[in-house]
């Protein structure tokens, strides 16, 4: 108790020195937590962007459809799966899709496309497809008065076929039974722009696509959106147990290459974060070391009047720890609202980025225990760590020599 | 090959006039024997290839496509003049009714009635599947004329002729070798085996169930079996085959007719 009192007294006796040390630590902390927030924020942005764009958090396929897509690898009872998924609490929504390559024709031109049949109602709540419609409307699933289904086409197809709203789109492909799939659709909407990921995709109502491909009632993919993105692996495992005949994969498996490059990028980021932490540590090391070396004479006197070396070492560690904790508290007072603002509003980009039809106008951060807590613990631990050798050094000092020095 | 024959004949007459008779006879018989083998092979192949066509023909057939995933049956009618012109139209199932294929010489078009469009089959698609079957577009078009683009060797057993076709150097083909087996008694094809460049068998076409079609004995059942795709098979059954029918004339083999709704 006496030691604690002494430590407090020492901190406040030299206000200017303590303030400088505290400032260096608090400043370092704010810098660290801010860089953590930026790096985490940009990843969660990217993840939520493409999971919402098309992958969802968990996907269900037949066998190895994911690795080797074949039109006949279908899920034959999507209604049953929908029932199971609707009953689960942590699933926000899900959607059903079919895929096939096709050739699109207008009167004069043709172009290869990727055909995706989507459950329009479910897709609305599962992906950002509706927000990506850049002209026209989000189509409805029924037949029009002339008996044609509507289609939404990527901007690239509209451009290369030279067609627009209300025009005829002819699709030719191979059906699941080997027959020639061919039909006419009316363009009801255009998706994204010419740089979007969907630029050469044709979206059809699920039923229209199933009829086109002679695979009524069957689908290739079930895409699931969870309440919490972080549950994707656990949810995939638990769903897999319930649906042993199908393969259930979290987005990390579905988008393996994206996930891997993201992990690699994150590791690269660890290095730059490491450098920032290192710079902060050097600052802390410097101030802590100076505050001890400055007081050689004081420690000499303490020893001369009979202080035990361990007590001196302990006192120095206590001093440093107290100072570090106080500066972290001050740093937290600044960085919490700062990162909070950064997460909610972010920085406005000079030029809005268009990623696959979704406009990203801000860079935002992330506010979490990890972002605030990790640098805090790191700095306190490091301050304590460097206080140990300096404390030992002070404790070992010989009183006569110490008192002779200034 | 015909030029070789004339050449031999010329040589023969030349020798006769120079009255070196014995020597000449010896030589010429030796050459003509060799020439006769290849020539007979050409004759046989030509006969086989013309078997289903005649001068002109019309046929009704059933095609059954079997794969591990599905089985599909199509009924179709086909007409042809010689080997250059043919026209096929699908009668059933209802979904595919009216889909038609026209072949003129080396070119091929498909008509899809639902979208009312004629689509030319590009050369790159010639080895592609016809209507999802194991027959290629090239099998229908016969763009490669066997007797012109392959070197032929004839082998004979008591029951069968086996003609081995090896592509000539300048021939563009995916096959390294084709065995053409012919039944001697009825002079009908029994099987065709297609090999790749490594001598591995890629697919088999088997002919069976001889049937009398207007006086000709013709195998009525064809089975195409790709050896590299397990569980896949396409069966063609001739239900009706008429030779020189009155309703088949040049007007059938036009793009205009192809486009006509049916």
- What's the name of the CATH homologous superfamily of the largest domain in chain B? Lipoprotein localisation LolA/LolB/LppX
Q: Beta-sheet strand percentage of chain B?
A: 35-45%
How much helix is in the residues of chain A? 40-55%
Overall average residue pLDDT of chain A = 86
Main β-sheet, spatial strand arrangement of chain A = 2-3-8-5-7-6
Number of DSSP E strands of chain A: 12
Order of helices and strands of chain A: HHEHEEHHEEHEEEHEHEHHHHEEHH
Report on the biggest sheet of chain A.
6 strands, mixed, barrel
The general outline of chain A is elongated
Q: What is the SS-derived class of chain B?
A: alpha+beta
Kindly name the structural category of chain A.
alpha+beta
Secondary structure: helix percent of chain B: 10-25%
Domains of chain A, number: 2
Number of H- or I-type helical stretches of chain B: 5
**What distance lies between the first and last C-alpha atoms of chain A, to the nearest angstrom?**
30 Å
Enumerate how many helices of chain A there are, as a single number: 14
Quick one: biggest sheet of chain B? Answer: 13 strands, antiparallel
